[in-house]
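LAB NOTEBOOK - FOLDING QUEUE
OPERATOR: T.R.
BATCH SIZE: 2
PURPOSE: Compare the predicted structure-token outputs for two unrelated chains run back to back under identical settings.
PRIORITY: normal
REVIEWER: second-year student, initials M.K.

ITEM 1
FIELD SEQUENCE / FIELD STRUCTURE:
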Amino acid sequence: MASSGGGYWRRLVRRLTTDVSELDADDLSRKAAEVGAVRACDCKSGEQVTVMGRLRSVELCPRDAAATLEAELYDGTEGVTLVWLGRRRIAGIEPGRTIKAKGRIAVRNGRKVLYNPYYELQTAS
């Protein structure tokens, strides 16, 4: 096996000694960058953005009479809450699913939020 300046061995040692959740976060960030998504940690309120990551949680939040479906998207750097107003369920929006979402970032209670985002379900790779 040829060595390319030790890069192979550094990557191997890193993969063997790094926490699995950190490796997963790095992988999510890399995949998001490959499709041109903005890292969640770099999103600013009022910006039109595309983010991509894995859904950590999906929850129906009845507030008054109107239902709201909320999902937390994590891209390896930070979470963004996706909120669909007036929705109780959306096929394919489930924990563990990777999606790409587009919309205008807002901040609610100190958290980044996309309201009624356009989204694309991503295939597992």
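ITEM 2
FIELD SEQUENCE / FIELD STRUCTURE:
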Amino acid sequence: MRAHHEKRINLALQGGGAHGAFTWGVVASLFEDYRLWIDAISRTTARAITALIKTQGMYQAQDEGARHALHEFWRAVSKAGQSSPIQRGPLDVLTGNWSLDRSPGYLFFDIMQRIASPYDVNPFDLNPLRDLVEKHVNFKKVRGAHDLGIFISATNVETGLARVFHRDEISIDVVMASACLPFLYQAVEIDGDYYWDGGYMGNPPIVPFFQGSHADDIAIIQINPIFREGVPKRARDILDRVNEITFNSALMHELRAIDHITKLVQSGDLNRADHREMRLHLIEARKRMRPLGASSKLNTEWKFLRHLFDIGRDAAEQWLDKHYDCIGTRSSLDVGSLFPTHVPSGKPRKRKAAPSKGGAPSSGKKSA
């Protein structure tokens, strides 16, 4: 950590398609705060690209270079998306709805991924994201950024286990493996093994910080909501909620374990010399992100990406204003609050009255 930085922290970045522009805003704000030293970054899926470009920019021209590099990458993503058949319809544009649920291109694409595999419809495994990454990321410079720990995870298709790649191992194949959604792209081969998206087994992985970083604070940049009120009824909504739960499950297990160990250390049941106490923090914007449908993760309109960037920047600035003093002293995240035992809506659930013996519904009143 350099002399002019007051505190050090690790960043754990969740994945989420175009919603990663939210992470872009958060990361930009945190890197610009000269009180903070970012010790290490852990990520999965396309969020790995955001961090790699940020690292490369810092290597080249400090913060100004990093800001420019990220802006250019996301601008290129938007331009590439202009030729996609998956676009918002005129009504959605008029009403300000960022969702693609009514896009004919999106609906066709959604049906195709359910009935055909990428090995059938994309036999040459064409991936425009790969071309963008190769153009905007200099992996030699990223691997040479020794001041920053970098961890990228991918899921081994055959074993079902996560593999965490460290900075010295990072390549274009590692990034593509980390972002490989199996319904869209063929599995990526690395050293004779095949990998899918790292989010299935860690979104993002937390454990690497214990041995790969000197910082005891972890800030999780969350995109996928853990809690969502109401039971989905439409097939598309059910699948979206299943994906949210799936991509959050590994993270939830890690947070529970870290929180449990921390409490045992604080109570004296575990020796502090043998067990590291990590402080947890969460940067999110659930109220502003939750209304965005899952289909909007494929919306690469520049206006939408900038909108997400602004949300991310606001979320980071608000978190710093409220919790900066917690860094280095205590967790600002109450892990228990992520696992409510009831629906925290503040509204009592309505229950149907039990039928009476005669078959008619009862009045719901108790007899004396």
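REVIEWER COMMENT (ITEM 2): DSSP finds twelve helices and eight strands in the chain.
FOLLOW-UP: none requested
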